[in-house]
Amino acid sequence: MNDPLPHSKPHYHLIDGLRGVAAIMVVIYHLGEGFCTSPADLWLVNHGYLAVQFFFILSGFVLGYSYDDRWNRMSIAGFLSRRVIRLQPMVAAGVVLGVAAYFMQGSVTWSGEHVAPIWVVLAVITTFFMIPAWAGSPLEIRGNAEMFPVDGPLWSLFFEYLGSVVYCLAIRRMSTRVLAWFTTLAAVGVGCFAIGNVSGYYHLGVGWSLSGVTPWGGVICMLFCFSAGFLMARIFHRLPPIKVKGAFWWSAAIIVILLSMPYVDYGHCPWLNGIYETICVVVIFPLLVWVAASGETTDRFSTSACNLSGDLSYPLYAVHYPSMYLFYAWVWGNGITWGGAWPVALLLVAANILLAWLLLRYYDKPLREWLSRRGKIGRR
User: What pTM was estimated for this model as a whole?
Assistant: First the structure.
């Protein structure tokens, strides 16, 4: 979800690689959602939603590294234009695929109620312009309280935009000391939200809906993750790097393990899950970013693999969910168990990676390059 790093600065290849790993884990997590009734009984990549917080920390780090020293020759409008060019083409692709999936399902809510075409059209328009649907409104065409029912995961892009606005208007103006205090207070907020059971499940799978406290949890997590990433970008070269042999593989394995951890409820103490998620987001994820930024790829193949992984991560995240809607409809409508669904699930993972690559090469990159030239804000 980040702008490409300027060519004049070193590129953090390991960060790109980890972003791709996290994106694949999100796809697997969403497949598992078809076989659960709550965050507590999801057995496949149970904590996959925490990958969004990892993405936000990465975004803060890369944006801070890329732009903190460029504001004397760049306007707020120029920065926000770069963000729109970076993010919006894949938003549009996700909307097109999402509405196609919706029509394939019969233009009905999950409960089977028909939706008037005008509301589908309006939902498409508002989703494209990142205007969220209020839970229970006619725009909420799937009846599942999603902020963006045409393509559910776009909710995190809404917060990505919000974080970018907060950065260019406020955070970039903070001194490092003030930013450190702000990040600390936001971390406390994340802990209070998770451990205090504000969500109802002692978890941080929030932000995807405008129902209840969910959006406020999304705001708190976004503020911490972005500010933590910006803070690390500022102080990274002032502190010693954390050099780890095989840093990418160790970091990738840790991400997979953390996101795959079952719901933590030992001895019927669900508050332990809140502690677990707080530690992941506030401590381990920033540490992994620091380790990845400290490491380097050692050969051309690993460099290319990490770059491709990072390039595919955003397209994969933005366009995979329409196929999940169809997968859920098939599973729920036919009473399919995981034993009967896993070959299709495996095929969907591969198909979505291929789709992401095709869109990246033949749509996203050419369109972004054209928009950059047209807007005269090409890379520097």
Answer: 0.94
